[in-house]
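Q: Hi! First time doing this. I have a protein sequence and I read that you can turn it into a structure. Is that right? Here it is:
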Amino acid sequence: MQRLFLTFFGAGLSPKAPGTVGSLAGAIAAFGILTILPASTLFLVSICLFLYSIKIIDDYEAKTGVHDHGSIVIDEVAGVWLAISISGATAVQFVLSVLFFRAFDILKPSVIGRIDKNVKGGLGVMGDDMVAGLFAGLLSAICYEAVTKIGLDYEWIKFELPFVK
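A: Yes, that's right. Below is the predicted 3D structure, encoded as structure tokens:
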């Protein structure tokens, strides 16, 4: 059960790019969640998932002796949910949130990389992805606002997801 949770129902078991697969699975789940619940709920669920996962990852690492095993993607799920919940209600913002999250998660700039290298255990595994999600959501929102402010507010850019408020 623990492995099923940490791999987000097996998404982390992908032989290629498990982090990306986990992020995409998280984005698909977020899309489903947002059809019935508001973005504020997704935000709160991402925070709860972050807090709950720290202990589960600590237990898993104690059993296996491996820090941040590649199959653990619950951190990507929580991070991408945070990014999506912060960004906004348009389809472009949804996609940008996922893309920026993956970029921050892979490149690990600034504080994200320091958390990844220096913070051990479940907090380290989850922490860098949550900060990446925060930065991705903010950057997506900023990019969207900048594009619309300079007059590139074409209909396809402003296409709102019908259920996101």
